[in-house]
Amino acid sequence: MKKVVLTIALFSTFVISAKATTVYAEIADDTHGTSIAKVGLEKQDETDEPTDPIDPPDVPGTYIPTGNTGALRIDYISNIDFGTQKIASETKNYTAGNSDEFVETQISDLRGNGAGWNLQVSYDSKKAGFYTENGVALAGAELSLPAGTAKTVTENQSPAAETATVTVNKDAQNIMFAAATTGLGTWEDQMSAEAVSLKVPSGNLAGTYSATLVWTLTDAPA
């Protein structure tokens, strides 16, 4: 009887030991390992290859490449054409709908530091407004640029830049801007041409008037 009891006790001890060994084998699995994959990103050097327009224009020649090559740069700017209008006896508001579907300005921030930026627009300080070649001013004219849509390339992971409405004058005003850690990559301020307007009061002389818009991209956060 004592042998039987002893045999059972030894068997029980063996079963417990075998179970503990099995648990240890599941934790320390020798059939798996780890490795590391890495990549470095650095500021883009100056390049002679301009960034293509995000949305190419419907009318050839509407978007003017700037030729800028820096890591923070303006790529393209739209010309604006309000056509030829009849002199009226009252104030008229004309739209740029006859030039292209959109008026656009495109910038690229390839610095990779997330510092933010401001795109500003103003009249040329030497001639703040619309003038003929002979220096006759289009009195009382007012150019308004709407808050456009901030567009970017497919799969850009950066938070979006922002846009603002601007009534152009001699002072530089933000029209598209990016706070810190936003607006990285290439961004376009896409304004509907139908919303770009020029107010022209009555009492002006006949003639062809033009204005020079100055676009400035600063590296300060919005």
Protein architecture, described:
It is a single chain. The protein is an alpha+beta fold and 222 residues long. It has one domain (63-218). The protein contains one helix and 13 strands; from the N terminus they run αβββββββββββββ. It has one helix at residues 2-27, and strands at 63-65, 72-78, 92-95, 102-109, 117-123, 142-145, 149-152, 162-163, 166-167, 173-178, 185-192, 197-200, 213-218. The strands form three sheets. Strands 1-2-4-11-7 form a five-stranded antiparallel beta sheet, with no helix packed on it. Strands 3-12-6-9 form a four-stranded antiparallel beta sheet, with no helix packed on it. It has a four-stranded antiparallel beta sheet with strand order 8-10-5-13, with no helix packed on it. A hairpin with a 6-residue loop joins strand 1 and strand 2. The longest helix has 26 residues, at 2-27. The chain is elongated, with a radius of gyration of 33 Å.
**Low-pLDDT stretches:** 1-24
Molecular shape: elongated
Sequence of secondary-structure elements: HEEEEEEEEEEEEE
Distance between the termini: 92 Å
Number of strands: 13
Rg, Cα atoms, Å:
33 Å
Mean pLDDT: 83
Oligomer: single chain
Count of alpha and pi helical runs: 1
The residue fraction in helices comes out at: 10-25%
Major sheet: order of its strands?
Answer: 1-2-4-11-7
Q: Describe the biggest sheet?
A: 5 strands, antiparallel
